[in-house]
Amino acid sequence: xxxxxxxxxxxxxxxxxxxxxxxxxxxxxxxxxxxxxxxxxxxxxxxxxxxxxxxxxxxxxxxxxxxxxxxxxxxxxxxxxxxxxxxxxxxxxxxxxxxxxxxxxxxxxxxxxxxxxxxxxxxxxxxxxxxxxxxxxxxxxxxxxxxxxxxxxxxxxxxxxxxxxxxxxxxxxxxxxxxxxxxxxxxxxxxxxxxxxxxxxxxxxxxxxxxxxxxxxxxxxxxxxxxxxxxxxxxxxxxxxxxxxxxxxxxxxxxxxxxxxxxxxxxxxxxxxxxxxxxxxxxxxxxxxxxxxxxxxxxxxxxxxxxxxxxxxxxxxxxxxxxxxxxxxxxxxxxxxxxxxxxxxxxxxxxxxxxxxxx
Length: 359
Description:
Elements: E1 4-9, H1 10-20, E2 25-28, H2 36-44, E3 53-56, H3 60-72, E4 77-81, H4 83-88, H5 90-99, E5 103-109, H6 125-129, E6 140-142, H7 147-164, E7 167-173, H8 174-178, E8 180-185, H9 194-200, H10 210-213, H11 225-245, E9 249-252, E10 259-262, H12 265-280, E11 285-290, E12 292-294, H13 298-305, E13 310-315, H14 321-329, E14 335-339, H15 348-355
Parallel strand pairs: 2-3, 2-4, 4-5, 5-7, 6-7, 10-11, 10-13, 13-14
Antiparallel strand pairs: 1-8, 6-12, 9-11
């Protein structure tokens, strides 16, 4: 199947991209505002065409443990949920990171804390980028700002997850998940054969190659503290490699900028309009959009800050990414935050008024 152009919601794009990138299995549970992922997969019926398994699990806890099992055999498996559901998955995500099991988790964020609202938010930034479960671990985090990126990041997330044997998260929100845009879907990539998985994933516990390599045991448990420390050092070295190789970001209108907005996801989309209006008013401002929230583009923001008078961090939360920006800037210039809460998204005019507060 060749490339195809469709008008899709962000959630629908995730589902179509999963089938086209050779996903072996989806295990999820419905929750607003991401339920269309599961619903679209049920409509597409990929089990009839590619053999991909689509299963509505009994809970989010069951979903993430199915991911642990499927990923442990070398399969491309994924789940999706929204904020409270992702919170329930944190123990399983920590287990996957500790056992070095690849897998994809999609979070279409809604407002919190607690059950909160079904309206969009970006208040899971800390949860995603700080390792919401126990222990010292990191998760690769991609932040799409368009429906096209919702589709594109599925295959990218799987590639990174398997390259580094680590869970990956697509951190979206209710705006991107529910909005509709034209999407170019990628050509169909066939699911890997058992022979290909055996070759590409010699670590997997799937029964292949037992005579050649013996039994693979995949676990995050180690009772010997010396061995556990050694395992942690190995993980930390892997995280250093990811930081060195996988930072992604986008910039716009920064060539002559005196101010910069740093924003991700739907906040970046809104900020682009604010920048357009602000420049018409004579405010020289540009956009820095982190695409990988972890690894965070710390060095790039540090360099950018040397050329600016100030930075405004726009988020749909009370202030979370702003701390990473301030850490990168190290006090060289003022860093302000503007955010809305409870499912309300910022207005471009509100952002401009904050930009005018810089001296």
